[in-house]
């Protein structure tokens, strides 16, 4: 028998091993289970929210029907999450670079431990901190922003006297998602091939140029995935926003005024205990919209990451 025939026979025997087949079946079942759970959640939300889709507009809480009820919540959810991401993502990249390429070894280990510890802090603790410490501390800066940058819609006055504004909510969310994004990016930067870094330095590049040419391109996919992971956390955050944000409804880009749009998750948490009938169906409908937003965000992130898979640190 030729060597080719013997190799084919050996490959068939390996594929037919019971342990391999059992492991393959287990992993396939786990993947299918995720899809089943996702479809089940979507079906549950759709079925429970359907009565609000067909209910008369006057039975929907507020005025104007289901769309006008959910739209300000969607706006507030996206505004707070995007604000948090804009603040947290650049800081996460800088912190990860400092830990991996600038800090001494012992300091880097200590900072890595602190980052992981911050990710484990319950959200309600962040909410209490934002309510008692951050909200009063933002009143002075909010007044300065209103006086000096009031021509920008984001900082148009008058500022809130309590500090429980969208700006405070965005800062709290930024602090919450910062350790998550930092941890993902840090691990990616640590995986940068040393040969790439050493080759850049050997060709005369400074440390900053080496980071720009070797480290950042290698970790770009992780920067995107970590940012989207943090964005998903910010979109679905409930208690911290409910404690910090003084919501009054409406749609406004003003970050420092007392008129703030609520978020979907916080609104559900605050309104669900006292709701009944169509009001509950309406809240579930808003949850369905949040589910769809999160799904779309993750699909977009996956598409962006897949377009950057041509870069490989090992190639």
From TrEMBL:
UniProt-listed InterPro entries: MetI-like, MetI-like_sf, Phosphate_PstC, Phosphate_Transport_Permease
Family to which this protein belongs: Belongs to the binding-protein-dependent transport system permease family. CysTW subfamily.
Keyword presence, Nucleotide-binding: no
Lineage: Bacteria, Bacillati, Actinomycetota, Actinomycetes, Actinopolysporales
Membrane topology summary: Multi-pass membrane protein
Cellular location(s): Cell membrane
GO biological process: phosphate ion transport
PANTHER family: PHOSPHATE TRANSPORT SYSTEM PERMEASE PROTEIN PST, PHOSPHATE TRANSPORT SYSTEM PERMEASE PROTEIN PSTC
GO cellular component, one term: plasma membrane
Stated role: Part of the binding-protein-dependent transport system for phosphate; probably responsible for the translocation of the substrate across the membrane.
Membrane-traversing stretches: 22-46, 66-98, 110-129, 167-189, 283-305
Single GO MF annotation: phosphate transmembrane transporter activity
Protein name per the record: Phosphate transport system permease protein
Superkingdom field: Bacteria
Keyword Transmembrane: yes
Domain ABC transmembrane type-1: 74-301
Entry keywords, A to Z: Cell membrane, Membrane, Phosphate transport, Transmembrane, Transmembrane helix, Transport
UniProt-listed NCBIfam families: phosphate_pstC
């Amino acid at each position: 028998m030729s060597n080719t025939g013997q190799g084919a026979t050996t490959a068939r025997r390996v594929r037919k091993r019971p342990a391999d087949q059992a492991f393959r079946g287990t992993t396939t079942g786990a993947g299918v289970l995720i899809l089943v759970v996702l479809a089940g959640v979507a079906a549950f939300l759709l079925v429970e929210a359907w009565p609000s889709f067909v209910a008369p507009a006057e039975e929907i809480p507020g005025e104007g029907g289901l769309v006008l009820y959910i739209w300000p919540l969607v706006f507030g959810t996206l505004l707070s999450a995007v604000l948090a991401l804009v603040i947290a993502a650049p800081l996460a990249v800088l912190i990860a670079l400092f830990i991996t390429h600038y800090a001494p070894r012992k300091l880097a280990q200590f900072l890595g431990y602190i980052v992981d510890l911050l990710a484990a802090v319950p959200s309600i603790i962040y909410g209490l901190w934002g309510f008692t410490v951050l909200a009063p501390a933002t009143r002075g800066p909010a007044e300065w922003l209103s006086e000096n940058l009031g021509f920008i819609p984001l900082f148009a006055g008058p500022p809130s006297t309590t500090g429980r504004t969208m700006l405070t909510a965005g800062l709290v969310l930024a602090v919450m998602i910062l350790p998550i994004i930092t941890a993902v990016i840090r691990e990616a930067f640590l995986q940068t091939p040393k040969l790439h870094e050493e080759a850049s330095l050997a060709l005369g590049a400074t440390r900053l140029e080496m980071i720009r040419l070797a480290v950042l391109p290698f970790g770009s996919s992780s920067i995107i995935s970590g940012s989207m992971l943090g964005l998903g956390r910010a979109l679905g955050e409930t208690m911290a926003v409910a404690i910090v944000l003084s919501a009054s409804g409406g749609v406004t880009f003003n970050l420092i005024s007392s008129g703030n749009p609520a978020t979907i998750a916080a609104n559900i948490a605050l309104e669900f205990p006292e709701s009944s009938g169509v009001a509950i169906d309406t809240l579930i409908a808003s949850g369905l919209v949040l589910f769809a937003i999160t799904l779309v965000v993750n699909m977009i992130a996956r598409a962006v990451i897949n377009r950057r898979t041509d870069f490989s640190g090992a190639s």
